[in-house]
């Protein structure tokens, strides 16, 4: 009986408690840097796997070397765009 009365008192005490309101949205003014699409360099045209399969060994080596240079230039431009975001 005492346990029932205790649970009843706890339930009634919980109903009379006031709950503070929680803010739904908080705006924090923090600048967010972004890159516009016109700042992103265009992807280079690289050789596909099917084109590589059709090449002989000499053409394959030359093509892979050319693709590596194109990719390095492209990655350098991408890194420059990312660095401009970090420095602002």
Strand content bin: under 5%
Largest sheet: none
Number of H- or I-type helical stretches: 3
Overall average residue pLDDT: 84
Say how many strands there are: 0
Keywords:
mainly alpha, 88 residues, 3 helices
Structure notes:
There is one protein chain. With 88 residues, the chain is mainly α. The chain has a domain at 34-88. The protein has helices spanning 2-16, 49-54, 57-87. It is elongated and about 95 Å long. The termini are far apart. The mean pLDDT is 84.
List the helices and strands and how they pair.
Layout lengths: L1 H15 L32 H6 L2 H31 L1
Brief account:
With 88 residues, the chain is mainly alpha-helical. Helix content is 59%, strand content 0%.
């Amino acid at each position: 009986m005492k346990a029932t009365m205790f649970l009843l008192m706890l339930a009634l005490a919980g109903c009379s408690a006031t709950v503070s309101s929680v803010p739904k949205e908080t705006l924090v003014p923090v600048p967010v840097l972004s890159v516009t699409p016109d700042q992103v360099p265009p992807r280079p045209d690289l050789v596909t796997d099917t084109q590589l399969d059709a090449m002989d060994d000499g053409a394959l080596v030359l093509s892979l070397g050319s693709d590596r240079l194109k990719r390095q230039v492209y990655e350098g431009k991408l890194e420059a765009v990312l660095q401009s975001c970090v420095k602002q």
